[in-house]
């Protein structure tokens, strides 16, 4: 009788380059946060956040880390002299320009400026 091939006890490690120190065993979380008045967009993938505005469509690439949160997702870091904090929490949100509804609200603090908007898990 042929025995089925056994599967490894743990899956092989994925690319660790995108995970922040201390988070190597956590799943990668990708998020997109955005808002209007003013228009802004932030995308987090692993330990990288790309922040863009209409004036800077290419965006700024910043590195940070996810910190523990009882509710939602918090990502912090520093871009030169500016600290940043992206806080995504469950809550009904509308972008104010379309009929789209989102299940998360976002606050992005970049230096002395606070941007408010909506968020969704990135694809």
Kindly describe this structure.
It is built from no helices and eight strands. The protein is mostly beta strands and 123 residues long. It has one domain (30-121). Mean pLDDT is 81; it is low at 1-20.
How are the elements arranged and paired?
Elements: E1 30-35, E2 40-45, E3 48-53, E4 56-67, E5 73-79, E6 82-94, E7 101-110, E8 113-121
Antiparallel strand pairs: 1-2, 1-8, 2-3, 3-4, 4-5, 5-6, 6-7, 7-8
In DSSP terms (H or I, runs of 4 or more residues), the helix count works out at 0
Q: Which band does the percent of strand residues land in?
A: over 45%
Whole-angstrom Rg: 18 Å
Oligomer: single chain
By DSSP, the count of extended strands is: 8
Keywords:
8-stranded antiparallel β-barrel; disordered N terminus; mainly beta; 123 residues; globular
Structure described in brief:
By secondary structure, this protein is mostly beta strands. It has one domain.
């Amino acid at each position: 009788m042929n025995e089925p091939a056994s599967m490894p006890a743990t899956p092989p490690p994925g690319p660790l380059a995108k995970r922040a120190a201390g988070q190597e065993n956590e799943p990668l979380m990708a998020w997109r946060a955005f808002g209007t008045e003013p228009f802004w967009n932030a995308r987090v993938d692993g330990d990288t956040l790309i922040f863009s505005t209409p004036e800077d469509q290419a965006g700024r690439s910043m590195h940070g880390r996810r910190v523990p949160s009882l509710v939602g997702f918090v990502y912090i870091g520093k871009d030169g002299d500016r600290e940043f904090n992206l806080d995504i929490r469950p809550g009904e949100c509308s972008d104010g320009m379309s009929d789209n509804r989102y299940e998360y609200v976002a606050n992005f603090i970049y230096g002395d400026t606070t941007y408010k908007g909506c968020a969704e898990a990135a694809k």
